[in-house]
Specification:
Layout lengths: L10 E2 L4 E3 L19 E3 L3 E2 L8 E5 L5 E3 L1 H5 L3 E9 L14 E10 H6 L9 E6 L3 E3 L2 E3 L3 E5 H5 L4 E6 L2 E2 L9 E3 L12 E7 L6 H5 L2 E3 L2 H5 L5 E3 L6 E6 L5 E2 L5 E8 L4 E7 L7 E2 L1 E2 L8 E7 L5 E11 L15 E7 L1
Parallel strand pairs: 5-16, 20-27
Antiparallel strand pairs: 1-4, 2-3, 5-6, 7-8, 8-13, 9-12, 9-16, 10-11, 13-14, 13-15, 17-18, 19-21, 21-25, 22-23, 22-26, 24-25, 26-27
Bound molecules: ligand MTE and molybdenum atom.
């Protein structure tokens, strides 16, 4: 069975939608409110009729299948709390945008569902298709398509999500069903999902090969690695929530520097510098639960008056950390004044 492509539903916000809601200093809650989550849609927001909708799973599976929404909802519901982060514009892959949230998704476990479908051993990649498509950045695509390696499925937590924070998925976040790939950048979590295809190779398309494909760098290429790397696992990153930019702090008065840190592998340590990187102090860091972000904090008594920059760097076990600049996960610097 091959998927007979559905007709494209009507698109609201044709031309695309990019809504950043909260700045880092506004990320004050551990779980981001549904209305505070950023919205990204390359083509617009399809208005999907759930009664007409179905998910096709095909390719290298023993039995290709179509699932209705109620069949997917009939499976055991899994709730996953996860960092949800946009990697930034595919046209400017090195510019940090800090569009990030931490949310609770509810849905069916995809690894378990595929376990019932007899997936072939040589199926190494999963392609996922959204119901949206059209023109983007001078090119065009029939559908928004992403792919991910089968190993990511084995690591668990990948959902066919129909709930966000206990309520049905809002239209702009993918109603009726989206993929959620915890630990990967948000771009991989395909909204308005209609097809999953198991394949032995990567998908060659606009959003897999041309965009969201980082240059690997000359050292990596010299070492025999491919010239482009898919934007999959989130790199170590952190945001300073408090103090807010341009705060006025009182000399000698105790305060706290705090924020969130995350990466695909999890953060092992977080360090703060107040002198442009000359010295770093280790902050207290909560241990990770599941795929959620981790809170860090450092009590601080400002001891000198004047302008000051606070910067945080998250470090993974193994030592991978954040660069000062020139990368989407560059360190977040907050300028304050001590009076
Ligand atoms: N079908 C479809 N899925 C998509 C996109 C899209 O344009 N179309 N944008 C991706 C990007 S770049 C991001 S960051 C996340 C944003 O998810 P959100 O809008 O629910 O926060 O959705 C991803 N999934
Ligand atoms: Mo994104």
């Amino acid at each position: 069975m091959t998927a007979s492509p559905p007709s494209r539903p009507p698109l609201d916000h044709a031309g695309g939608l990019r809504r950043t809601k909260l700045q880092p200093h506004e990320l004050t809650t551990a779980i981001t409110g549904v209305n505070d989550i950023f919205v990204l849609a390359h083509f617009g927001v399809p208005r999907v009729d759930a009664a007409q909708w179905a998910l096709t799973i095909d390719g290298l599976v023993g039995r290709a299948r179509r699932f209705t929404l109620s069949e997917i909802k009939g499976r055991p519901k899994v709730v996953v709390e996860s960092v949800h982060q946009c990697c930034g514009s595919p046209l400017e892959p090195r510019v940090p945008t800090r569009r990030v949230s931490n949310v609770r998704w509810g849905g069916a476990d995809l690894t378990a569902l595929l376990g019932d479908l007899d997936v072939a051993d040589d199926a190494r990649f999963l392609w996922s298709f959204g119901l949206d498509g059209g023109a983007f950045a001078g090119a065009s695509a029939e559908w928004f398509v992403k792919d991910l390696p089968r190993e990511r499925l084995a690591a668990g937590g990948v959902l066919l999500a129909y709930e966000l924070d206990g309520a049905p998925l809002p239209t702009e976040h993918g109603f009726p069903l989206r993929l959620v790939v915890p630990g990967y950048y948000g771009t991989n979590s395909v909204k308005w999902l209609w097809r999953l295809h198991l394949a032995h190779r990567r998908y060659d398309g606009l959003f897999t090969s041309r965009f969201y494909a980082d240059e690997a760098g000359s050292d990596a290429v010299a070492a025999g690695q491919p010239p482009h790397r898919p934007v999959w696992a989130t790199a170590p990153e952190s945001v300073v929530v408090a103090p807010a930019p341009d705060s006025r702090l009182v000399h000698g008065e105790p305060t706290e520097i705090w924020g969130w840190a995350w990466s695909f592998r999890g953060i092992a340590a977080l360090e703060i510098t107040l002198d442009g990187g000359a010295t770093f102090t280790r902050a207290f860091l909560e241990s990770r639960h599941g795929w959620a972000w981790q809170r860090f904090s450092l009590p601080w008594i400002p001891a000198t008056r004047g302008h000051l920059s606070i910067a945080a760097r998250a470090i993974e076990a193994g030592g991978v950390t954040q660069p000062w600049e020139g990368a989407r996960n560059a360190m977040h610097v907050v300028n304050v004044t001590v009076v």
